[in-house]
């Protein structure tokens, strides 16, 4: 036979196969032996346990394992339902706040448009005032009347100004006129270039009172010429008041963020006009890109975000997972306490059950030992009516029967000994008489009459006594 390959030695090949089969067989035998040894050890340990420990060993897992399964399943269900409810509440709050912010922005834009096209404002700007202090007074008076009579400026605007085409800056807070600087002139050209479109941006004064700036060019409704621009900072309190009664500041956070990552409004007042963290901004960008309102971030927080329909603003809702699971942890703690109480009660009841079985058995064992050593006067008191009580009654009856049987056997043996003794005595008496008569006969033959007479006398007295 020829083997193809690198090794063409048949003996070496057969030997290798035989060795491999032997190793596999040895591994199987070793595994089997280990399994048998393990089973024998477990059986030996189980047989060495007392009945009480066997009962506890069987009953405790039967109670503990179902309890753990119930705890895990109920905890999982509670966690999922709690999380789903928290997410639903968070989405409802976010939508409510988002709708309110959109409504506020819509009202602001509407009022700005109405204000920019009002005839009183346009007439106040278009009027030809003398270049004097009196002319400036007339201008500020006309502008004040146009601003405060047309709209309730205090309810929307924290600060702002109107930049006219003839380079006058009217400050609505101070009712004063000043000359624009280079930055204002640049911004004026930028707003005019937007041709009447409303521009939303960062506030001119970054303080806690202002959220953002709204600017718009003022177009003459008759001629279409540009009369100037308005630049107003919108109050941050408008947005804060819309959601502070909805958000729990101890557990929830809400931010109004612009595209420059600036926090325009927040429950935490110290964060106003601060830059949002990179992680949160990344989360907001991912939500905006996925066009989804929900995103579970990696820092153990529930983050929801939506974009305002008016302007590029993001409303972000953040809720720590701890607040979601706090109620779940409370319910789980209650379940754990109930389980521990049930486990303690089970251990106590199992111990009582084991003792109710092992204690009578111990009494029966002691009773059997005393009976086995011949103490038939021993007594046992087991008042239970179960099988153990039935067994104790049978033990007592058996002890009574053994005692009676022992006494009867003893009496029979005593009588038997007496009968044997009497029989022996009966056998001895004739033999004694024969010996005595033989001796007397011998004395008479030898003419020893006196000793023979004495023996007859004593023999007669003996038999009379007997």
Written account of the structure:
The chain has 466 residues and is an alpha+beta fold. Helix content is 62%, strand content 14%. Strand 9 and strand 10 form a beta hairpin.
Runs in which pLDDT lies below 50 for 5 or more consecutive residues are 1-12
Oligomer: single chain
Q: Strand pairing plus helix content: what structural class?
A: alpha+beta
- Count of DSSP H/I helices: 10
Kindly report the average pLDDT value.
Answer: 79
Shape type: rod-shaped
**How is the biggest beta sheet arranged?**
6 strands, antiparallel
SSE series: HHHHEEEHEEEHEEHEEEHHH
Radius of gyration: 58 Å
- Beta content: 5-15%
Any descriptors?
466 residues, alpha+beta, 5-stranded antiparallel beta sheet, 10 helices, 62% helix, disordered N terminus
């Amino acid at each position: 036979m020829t083997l193809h390959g690198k090794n063409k030695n048949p003996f070496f090949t057969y030997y290798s196969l035989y060795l491999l089969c032997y190793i596999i067989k040895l591994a199987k035998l070793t595994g089997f032996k280990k399994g048998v040894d393990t089973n024998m050890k477990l059986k030996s340990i189980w047989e060495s346990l007392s009945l009480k420990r066997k009962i506890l060993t069987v009953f405790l897992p039967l109670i503990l394992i179902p309890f753990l399964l119930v705890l895990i399943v109920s905890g999982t269900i509670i966690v999922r339902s709690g999380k789903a409810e928290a997410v639903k509440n968070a989405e409802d709050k976010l939508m409510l706040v988002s709708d309110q912010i959109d409504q506020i922005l819509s009202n602001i834009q509407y009022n700005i448009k109405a204000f920019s096209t009002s005839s009183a404002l346009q007439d106040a700007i278009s009027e030809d005032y003398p270049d004097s202090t009196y002319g400036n007074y007339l201008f500020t008076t006309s502008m004040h009347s146009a601003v405060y009579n047309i709209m309730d400026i205090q309810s929307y605007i924290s600060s702002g100004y109107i930049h006219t085409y003839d380079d006058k800056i009217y400050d609505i807070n101070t009712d004063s006129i000043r000359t624009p600087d280079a930055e204002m002139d640049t911004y004026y050209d930028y707003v005019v270039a937007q041709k009447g479109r409303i521009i939303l941006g960062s506030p001119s004064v970054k303080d806690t009172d202002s959220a953002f700036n709204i600017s718009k060019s003022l177009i003459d409704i008759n001629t279409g010429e540009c009369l100037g621009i308005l630049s107003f900072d919108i109050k941050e309190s408008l947005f804060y008041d819309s959601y502070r009664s909805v958000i729990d500041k101890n557990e929830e956070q809400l931010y109004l963020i612009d595209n420059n990552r600036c926090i325009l409004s927040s429950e935490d007042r110290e964060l106003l006009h601060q830059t949002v963290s990179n992680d949160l901004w990344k989360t907001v960008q991912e939500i905006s890109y996925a066009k989804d309102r929900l995103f579970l971030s990696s820092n153990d927080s529930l983050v929801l975000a939506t974009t305002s329909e008016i302007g590029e603003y993001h409303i972000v809702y953040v809720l720590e997972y701890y607040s979601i699971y706090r109620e779940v942890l409370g319910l789980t703690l209650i379940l754990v306490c109930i389980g521990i109480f049930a486990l303690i009660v089970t251990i106590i009841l199992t111990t009582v059950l084991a003792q109710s079985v092992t204690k009578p058995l111990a009494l029966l064992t002691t009773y059997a030992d005393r009976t086995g050593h011949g103490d038939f006067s021993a007594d046992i008191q087991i008042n239970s009516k179960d099988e153990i009580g039935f067994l104790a009654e049978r033990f007592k009856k058996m002890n009574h029967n053994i005692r009676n049987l022992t006494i009867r056997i003893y009496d029979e043996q005593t009588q038997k000994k007496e009968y044997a003794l009497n029989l022996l005595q009966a056998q001895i008496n004739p033999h004694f008489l024969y010996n005595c008569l033989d001796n007397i006969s011998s004395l008479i033959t030898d003419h020893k009459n006196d000793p023979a007479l004495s023996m007859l006398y004593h023999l007669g007295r003996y038999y009379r006594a007997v």
